[in-house]
UniProtKB/TrEMBL annotation:
PANTHER family: BIFUNCTIONAL UDP-N-ACETYLGLUCOSAMINE 2-EPIMERASE_N-ACETYLMANNOSAMINE KINASE (PTHR18964:SF149), ROK (REPRESSOR, ORF, KINASE) FAMILY (PTHR18964). It comes from the Bacteria. It holds the Pfam family ROK. SUPFAM superfamilies: Actin-like ATPase domain (SSF53067). This is ROK family protein. Belongs to the ROK (NagC/XylR) family.
Amino acid sequence: MFRASPLDGRVLVEIKQPTAAEGGLALIDQIAAQREHLLLQAGLSSDKLLAGSVGVPAAVHPRTRRLSRIPNIRGIEELDFSGILTRKFDMPVSVENDVNLAALGEHWRGHRASSMVFLALGTGIGMGVILDGKLFRGARGAAGEISALPIGGDAFAQDSLESGALENAVSGKAMMARYLGSGGRPGTKLTGLFVVPPSSAPAPMLDEAGRLIALAILSVCAVIDPEKVVLGGSIGIRPELLARTTHHLARCMAVPPSCQISALGNRAGALGAVRAARLLLADEYISACETS
């Protein structure tokens, strides 16, 4: 998704397009092309752009800005991605982990709390961490990579090393495989797995997913102690999953954190991108003042 917004986060124009499959420099070219389309549709000249922000499914090193842990987009780990975009567009460009952006957006315009985590669950699982009102990235930008937690599988197995034990247990792909393996009807859509008649007990697959996510939240709380846990992503926003998760949290925690579905839905990441651009502009201004 590509979006042009003023600094208050409103949407001027939006374009949805799949990420360039070639990755690498082709992704840079795609961003440049969509930037021109956004300007054209919004009726703006390029001099009206103050900053840009890009979300990527990767760990972004807080000092070098290099990308790592990015199996789904080829050829960009070797690039100075942030630097190339900044030079190409002649303006500051923030490159940030996509779930971190969702956490920033939720903290800015959604379920705000001084210390909170945004847990995104869909095709994979990831987490953005806000501590004392600020995004926490960790030493190598990998804070929140909870897919690797040793929950739901053997952390020493090869597939866990590649994609993470927890992700292999609770991702959308894993849920569907568990459903079909237990005799489920082929052709059922993922959303159909969450439909629970009012008089029925939760499906074992749904209950197990809630139990594993509760264990993940327990682990996070033991280290971070967040005031609030916000769930997002195509699976994370399901109220049926939240109900099973909170049920199991009450069984394993004396005082569970507040758990809520994202107030922003699929807008969390986009609003987080605006927030990241605002923070980058503030840093640029402060640096300019210090050197003047």
